């Protein structure tokens, strides 16, 4: 019951799509807070007990926790209970589902709401978090159209824009536009922090640095899990980026003004087109 | 008369520190706009003519333009005219000043207002741009204390916080906290833009990507100049970053969860301390 799970609960309640919400979590303080904020109606610590009688289960936890939770809820799921998730990586979720929810795949709808934030915990949850945000569903061949539709209806009720991709395609795309930038931002901050005179450097870091590194304030545990869950695609993007930096280093070594400006120009123009198309 | 020059003019006028401001520029449209917005009192295209009779000259132009402008204004400067600049790199400015303003070094005060923005042009100029912003002065051994003081008084009138560094020290620090992040952001956008399916990737890029790449909307000409002007220090930081990425790639290849999380953890903690100390 963190940012994503809490916001899904608040959105669906605001849309009148839910009756009774059971929140499951590791931390008692967070669950008590979720009850107090009326994000959930009931708190539970044992996943298997919590899913008893549920019409739908929403797995909104770190990638590293998913297989264990799937294994624990599998025997307790109602036959027609829809299971969906919010993971930032989808091939690993498919793999885990095939292992732990093998007899429940018809009702399993992998999904990824693209609405992260560097904040976490239920206190960051908001009923409008998914408004106009992308949600990617990556149905398995076994996923029934009924289950898919039910999950899509709920995300639409949250104001999200739905897209469908295969798990592999999803992971390629997000390794490039999300996972790699997170790695680069963490690395940038770590490089400054590791300088012998880190304090002096941070003193002169300004708003450009602040925005560039905002995502380095994201949860280290969560992002370690994401990077490992999607490491094949991430490594491919990282290697491409390393090759690009090596090329830029050569341009700098040879003071190749034309190539440097051309690259900056291309990037600036591409970003402008993207920003404009988003408005 | 762009973001920096225009904002300096507006701030000083608001503080009652100037009488008559002559704006010099390459573009007639921008200068006409500067006159219309009353940022300047008079527009000029020929630097040597513009500095005649001036008490102070503020060079707020791309690093690549600085030597040419210094050479053109040198013969026309009044004997006691203070010359200062706003360059993001300072060793190259010192080099250019030694070459082109050799007989005027006593009155030369290199400075760097740390208040960039991805916007440019006089229309982006604001009287409060430098409020609570850092301004680094890097006086040369020849710079007179009178000249230094006069420049400091003006920046204080703009609400800036003054710091003093040597040119070399300045360039090391800013290569790490500013120039490298710009290169990384341009490279990231260029990598996505160069993908065979760039449109699909951009479609799923979200707010994390937007903030991470905001500085890639900065002026390509200006940043090409900065990167070249400071390429020795920048290459050193870039090589350190390449080594760090190689280390991260190895962690990923070996699925070394502990090392990945430790690095992310360190970065997140360092960024939190920095953000808190800035508030």
Work out the strand percent of chain A: 5-15%
N-to-C SSE series of chain A? HEHEHEHEHEEEHEHHHHHH
User: Which spans of chain A of ≥5 residues are poorly predicted at pLDDT below 50?
Assistant: none
**Amino-to-carboxy terminus distance of chain A:** 32 Å
* Category from helices, strands and their pairing of chain A: mainly alpha
The total of helices of chain A stands at: 12
What is the approximate shape of chain A?
A: globular
The protein's oligomeric status is: homodimer
Number of strands of chain A: 8
* Helix content estimate of chain A: 40-55%
Q: Which whole number gives the mean pLDDT of chain A?
A: 96
Strand numbers in spatial order across the main sheet of chain A: 3-4-5
What does the radius of gyration of chain A come to?
Answer: 21 Å
User: Largest sheet of chain A at a glance?
Assistant: 3 strands, parallel
The greatest inter-chain interface is formed by: A-B, 87 and 88 residues
Characterization of the model:
The structure is a homodimer of 279-residue chains. Chain A is mainly alpha-helical. Chain A is 54% helix and 10% strand. Chain A contains twelve helices and eight strands. A three-stranded parallel beta sheet of chain A has the order 3-4-5, with helices on one face. In chain A, strand 3 (56-59), helix 4 and strand 4 (82-85) form a beta-alpha-beta unit. In chain A, helix 4 packs parallel to helix 5 and helix 7 packs across helix 11 (231-253). The relative contact order of chain A is 0.11. Chains A and B meet through helix 7, helix 8, helix 9, helix 10 and helix 11 of A and helix 7, helix 8, helix 9, helix 10 and helix 11 of B.
